[in-house]
Amino acid sequence: MYPQIIPEELYEKVRAISEKNKRGKRSIKTVYLLRDKMICGYCGMPVVAESNTGKKREPDRFYYKCKGRKRKLNDCRKASVRKEKLEQIVLDTIMNRLTDKGFMDKFVQDVLAEQEKRSRERSSLQTLLKEQRQNETTLNNILSAIEKGVVNNTTQKRMKELEERQEELERLILIERSKQSAYYSESQIREYYEQVLQAEPQTLINFLIKQIILYDDKIEIYFNTPTTGPDNVRGFLFCRLFL
Predict the structure, then answer these.
(1) Strand locations in the chain, DSSP E?
(2) Is 204 helix (H, G, I), strand (E, B) or coil?
(3) Quick one: DSSP state of residue 24?
(4) Nearest-10 Cα torsion for 218, 86, 49, 32
(5) Residues 145-171: pLDDT tens digits?
């Protein structure tokens, strides 16, 4: 039997919050653990909080609902999902899979493979750096020509084009370098998740989940990883669940 990665204390905290929210009161204090993490799989709009006032002596009910449908911004027909049901599915999935050694081994290898793929993209960075050097040389030549009195509309137009391209190249180079800023070992990737799992439930969700794509019949959960770059909007696919 392999040791459990998630501490029992943390597991119980998550359960306690889920149970509390099931009973929820009509109050803004209700915690939506997945707030700002989900988009609708059909129309791409954010999935937002929704609540219905319960009848006398009955608790209010809380949901997650497509913003497009809620505010009639489009013709999306994505059904609402009970808050506690969806949160429990997501939390149980994270806990069960991160304590499954077989799944975790494969997941870490997939993250390592993605990191290796990013490393191979260094050729893109080298291409950008080469173009940047060529632009600098051309700009210097134009400046030398201007100093010698060779000035015309064509020269000025070309100089402006090169300067604008240089600014764009600087932005692209920063993005490429950010992808390659660090290289993580297998043990460091495992440690990343173990440390995040020590956090409070809401912090745990914020750190682990990059995005959830919600359909009526399935959920796609995308994780943050140590190798997730700033240009990686969606994140790394952690799992796909069919409901």
Answers:
(1) 38-40, 47-52, 61-66, 81-82, 209-214, 218-223, 236-242
(2) helix
(3) -
(4) -140
(5) 888 888 788 888 888 999 999 999 999
Which residues fall within 8 angstroms of residue 241, CB to CB, at 6 or more apart?
Answer: 89, 93, 218, 219, 220, 221
Distance CA(168)–CA(163), nearest Å, equals: 9
Residue 28: its H or E element: none
Q: How far apart are CA 152 and CA 167, in angstroms?
A: 23
b/e burial code for range 3-15 (CB count within 10 A of at least 16 → b): eeebeeebbeebe
Instruction: Show me where the domains of the chain are located.
Output: 8-116+184-242, 122-179
Those residues whose C-beta lies under 8 Å from the C-beta of residue 242, and which sit 6 or more positions away, are 217, 218
| 44: alpha, beta or left? (left if phi > 0; alpha if psi -120 to 50) | left
Residues in CB range of 35: below 8 A, 6 or more apart: 48, 49
Question: Dihedral sign, CA of 170, 176, 178, 182?
Answer: negative
User: Residue 20: which of 9, 7, 33 has the closest Cα?
Assistant: 33
Chain-centroid distance, C-alpha 234: 4
Query: What's the rounded Cα separation, in Å, for the pair 47 and 37?
Result: 8
Largest CA distance in the chain: 88
How confident is the model over 167-208, as pLDDT tens digits? 999 999 887 776 665 678 899 888 888 887 777 778 888 888
How many whole angstroms from its chain centre is CA 157? 41
